[in-house]
């Protein structure tokens, strides 16, 4: 953003820029851009003279007789020009002549006579150019001059802008740079420049006149025009591009603000400097061109502030955007309501507004950089470059610094930085999109796996629920059977006890022997009830899984000896032929982990159940062997009795289940022995089953895992 740039032309001669941009890696690309733009700015600001310092005018004369035009075809006409202030329009020139520095504004510096002249008025500049004998056509590039002038060469008017006059009524402002060609006649050329200013805060010559050969001046003009057209074109293209982005995504209001910033700066660049918009639209007056210059300056600052607030909302409050917008609109209203002479005199307020916004933006970007916001460093570099150019133009247009317009370069630098930020963000967005896509694929695969796992879990849960349901139904049936059996098994002995007690009470049993026999029977029934209760308690503990087994390792040979020793005498007393065998000597070395005390209870139930169904003189045989096809041992208890009815086999291990032969309490047994045996075996991770032998008799088979 330039400051009152329309007040003067650039008049600088650019040098060819050759800056190699490093592209070693994307992390260093921004550094290459910074170096490229910085080098371009430095080269653009170099002097037009490349080999030696050009001479300066002294007391209104510049001596170029020794100048090497073939090697240095361009030279600025800077230094002390003769200066004559034109007083009242009805008073002729008084002939008093002094000197004044060119470039310079007569209201901002002292003339040779020590006076400072008012900004409003008219003056005549004169310069004698001593160039020796030259052949051919020479040319002068005339910069923007405030605000109307006439140029005379050797007393002949050759060029002018606006209407020169010695009062406001006779003067008409207009300003664009131009080129004047003339034919050299002898060894000197007299230049006379009449300038009037009644419409602007400053009057005079702000930038240099350039004298040179016609070809080089034409080339200089072309470069200056091309340079400005490139800046205008870049601003318009970037602006339209961001408008397109905003149309596609309305949520990104930052794109709209950046687009307006670029378009308004393109407008301002077009009405100042080379004045292309003024040339393209001849109906656009100098007054409205100046208004557009100041309006674009205020609004561009506001749009830039709004853009960076959208970019970094945590560092800049939106409240200040509204405040700065109100100030910008107020400045625009002042620009429209007052004539140029007034609002150009208040340029300091425009500059203060712009510098305040720049300072706030810089502070916010520094904070964003410290907080490691994305793109904050590049944005800070770009804004710092623009601020440096703005400070340069403030000094330049207030006459405190001899320089040239840097804001177009600074703004182009800012655009490049912002474009790189956008490219960086787009690249990171694509990377994140690719990463998210890959993660989504992985999540999709994992989700399918999870669904399969959940489906399998649900299927297993369903099966578990089905099994639980079946188990609950079985438990309910068992509970009913348990209640029925308990009521049956308890009712008979209790009824007998009641009968015996009534007989004793009524004196029916009076004899001593009868009474003793009755008491013995009653005690037997009570013992049976106690055994039933004990068996029920043990079975409930086993089924609840609250039993801790005291496992110990034992070989089948030692276990065989234990079973033989414990049960052989009882079996012989009951008239049974009892034997405990190992089919193979190798089987005796096989080891198992068992709780011997509880397994003794199992064999006690099985053996005495076999005794119940085997007549005296029958055979009961226990065999222990290792299965050849598995890691298990097999223990069988077989008898030569009546065997088991096929209908009883599926229910033989159910609690309180009794065959028809012993369906009464007097036969002994609670009906829980086999159920208890089954629970004990299963606690050893084994299995038990019943079968009938082909040669007659029944049998029980126990399988247990071999110890590792």
Automatic annotation (TrEMBL):
GO BP: any one term: cellular response to phosphate starvation
Ranges in a coiled coil: 433-485
InterPro entries registered for this protein in UniProt: 7TMR_DISM_rcpt_extracell_dom1, BphY/WalK/GraS-like, Galactose-bd-like_sf, HATPase_C_sf, HATPase_dom, His_kinase_dom, HisK_dim/P_dom, HisK_dim/P_sf
KW Ion transport (keyword) present: no
Swiss-Prot/TrEMBL keywords: ATP-binding, Coiled coil, Kinase, Membrane, Nucleotide-binding, Phosphoprotein, Transferase, Transmembrane, Transmembrane helix, Two-component regulatory system
GO MF assignments: ATP binding; phosphoprotein phosphatase activity; phosphorelay sensor kinase activity
Stretches that traverse the bilayer: 229-248, 255-280, 292-308, 320-341, 347-370, 377-400, 406-424
Superkingdom: Bacteria
UniProt-listed Enzyme Commission number(s): 2.7.13.3
Residue intervals of the Histidine kinase domain: 485-708
Matches recorded under Gene3D superfamilies: 1.10.287.130, Galactose-binding domain-like, Histidine kinase-like ATPase, C-terminal domain
Record localization: Membrane
Gene Ontology terms: cellular component: plasma membrane
Catalytic activity: ATP + protein L-histidine = ADP + protein N-phospho-L-histidine
Protein name in the entry: histidine kinase
Organism lineage string: Bacteria, Bacillati, Bacillota, Bacilli, Bacillales
């Amino acid at each position: 953003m330039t400051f009152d740039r329309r007040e003067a032309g650039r008049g600088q001669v650019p040098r060819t820029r050759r800056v190699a941009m490093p592209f070693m890696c994307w992390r260093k690309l921004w550094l290459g851009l910074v170096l490229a733009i910085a080098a371009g700015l430095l080269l653009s600001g170099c002097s037009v003279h490349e080999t030696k310092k050009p001479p300066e005018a002294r007391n209104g004369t510049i001596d170029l007789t020794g100048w090497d035009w073939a090697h240095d075809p361009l030279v600025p006409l800077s230094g002390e020009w003769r200066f004559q202030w034109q007083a009242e329009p009805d008073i002729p020139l008084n002939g008093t002549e002094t000197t004044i520095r060119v470039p310079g504004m007569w209201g901002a510096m002292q003339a040779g006579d020590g006076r400072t002249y008012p900004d409003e008025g008219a003056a005549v500049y004169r310069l004698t150019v001593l160039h020796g004998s030259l052949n051919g056509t020479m040319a002068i590039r005339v910069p923007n001059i405030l605000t109307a002038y006439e140029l005379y060469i050797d007393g002949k008017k050759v060029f002018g802008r606006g209407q020169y006059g010695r009062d406001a009524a006779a003067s008409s402002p207009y300003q664009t740079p131009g080129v004047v060609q003339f034919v050299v006649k002898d060894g000197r050329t007299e230049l006379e420049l009449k300038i009037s200013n009644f419409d602007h805060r400053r009057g005079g010559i702000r930038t240099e006149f350039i004298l040179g050969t016609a070809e080089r001046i034409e080339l200089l003009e072309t470069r200056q025009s091309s340079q400005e057209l490139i800046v205008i074109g870049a601003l318009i293209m970037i602006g339209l591009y961001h408008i397109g982005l905003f149309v596609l995504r309305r949520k990104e209001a930052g794109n709209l603000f950046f687009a307006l910033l670029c378009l308004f700066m393109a407008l301002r660049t077009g009405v100042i400097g080379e004045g292309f918009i003024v040339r393209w639209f001849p109906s656009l007056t100098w007054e409205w061109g100046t208004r557009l210059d100041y309006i674009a300056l205020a609004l561009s600052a506001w749009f830039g502030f709004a853009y960076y607030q959208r970019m970094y909302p945590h560092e800049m409050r939106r409240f200040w955007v509204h405040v700065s917008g109100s100030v910008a609109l107020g400045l625009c209203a002042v620009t429209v309501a007052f004539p140029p002479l007034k609002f150009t005199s208040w340029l300091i307020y425009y500059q203060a507004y712009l510098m305040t916004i720049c300072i706030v933006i810089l502070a916010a970007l520094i904070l964003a950089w410290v907080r490691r916001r994305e793109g904050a460093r590049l944005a800070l570099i770009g804004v710092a470059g623009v601020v440096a150019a703005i400070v340069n133009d403030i000094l330049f247009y207030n006459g405190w610094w001899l320089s040239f317009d840097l804001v177009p370069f600074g703004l182009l630098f800012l655009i490049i930085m912002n474009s790189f930020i956008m490219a960086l963000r787009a690249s990171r967005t694509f990377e994140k999109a690719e990463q998210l896509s890959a993660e989504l694929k992985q999540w999709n695969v994992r989700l399918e796996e999870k669904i399969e796992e959940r489906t399998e879990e649900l299927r297993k849960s369903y099966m578990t629920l089905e099994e639980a349901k079946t188990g609950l139904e079985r438990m309910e049936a068992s509970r009913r059977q348990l209640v029925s059996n308990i009521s049956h098994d308890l009712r008979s002995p209790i009824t007998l006890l009641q009968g015996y007690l009534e007989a004793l009470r009524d004196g029916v049993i009076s004899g001593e022997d009868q009474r003793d026999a009755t008491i013995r029977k009653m005690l037997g029934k009570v013992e049976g009830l106690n055994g039933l209760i004990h068996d029920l308690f043990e079975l409930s503990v086993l089924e609840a899984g609250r039993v801790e087994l005291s496992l110990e390792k034992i070989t089948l040979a030692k276990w065989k000896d234990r079973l033989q020793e414990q049960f052989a005498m009882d079996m012989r007393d009951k008239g049974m032929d009892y034997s405990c065998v190992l089919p193979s000597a190798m089987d005796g070395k096989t080891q198992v982990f068992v709780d011997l005390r509880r397994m003794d209870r199992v064999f006690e139930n099985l053996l005495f159940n076999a005794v119940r169904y085997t007549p005296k003189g029958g055979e009961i045989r226990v065999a222990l062997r290792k299965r050849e096809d598995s890691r298990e041992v097999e223990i069988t208890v077989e008898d030569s009795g009546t065997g088991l009815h096929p209908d009883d086999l599926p229910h033989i291990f159910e609690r309180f289940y009794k065959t028809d032969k012993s369906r009464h309490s007097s036969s002994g047994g609670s009906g829980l022995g086999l159920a208890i045996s089954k629970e004990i075996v299963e606690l050893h991770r084994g299995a038990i089953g019943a079968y009938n032998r082909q040669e007659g008799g029944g049998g029980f088979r126990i399988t247990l895992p071999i110890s590792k």
